[in-house]
Amino acid sequence: MTPRPNSETIESLRLTLQKLQQTSEAAQDGASMADRADLKRILLNRIAELEVTMALAPADGETESASNPAALVPPSVTEVGPPQESTPGSELDKLN
Question: What is the pLDDT of residues 11-55, one digit of tens each?
Fold first, then answer.
């Protein structure tokens, strides 16, 4: 079973929240109002979590390049050339 896309889950939670608000307007029982308030808070928190997850998720194109390690290495690093000759201490002399 494949997980549902976040956008569909958010839409379902919003519809559930809307129905909950409509039924809570009709019922004025104190205990059930507290339960509905808790459920409303849970739904709103879950919607917020999913929206943050969607906002932080990389775009489809970025996912492909990130999964390819060669795409993360700059071309200058991957080019192979003749080794550079250096004399001991020459790098230190350049710093002084």
Answer: 999 999 999 888 866 666 666 778 888 999 999 999 999 999 999
What HEC string does the chain produce? Answer: CCCCCHHHHHHHHHHHHHHHHHHHHHCCCHHHHHHHHHHHHHHHHHHHHHHHHHHHCCCHHHHHHHHCHHHHCCHHHHCCCCCCCCCCCHHHHHHC
Could you give the angle at which helices 6-26 and 30-56 cross, rounded to 10 degrees? 160
Q: Distance between CA atoms of 79 and 62, rounded to whole angstroms?
A: 24
Q: Over the stretch 69-78, which tens digit does the pLDDT of each residue have? A: 555 555 554 5
∠69-75-78 over CA atoms, to 5°? Answer: 75
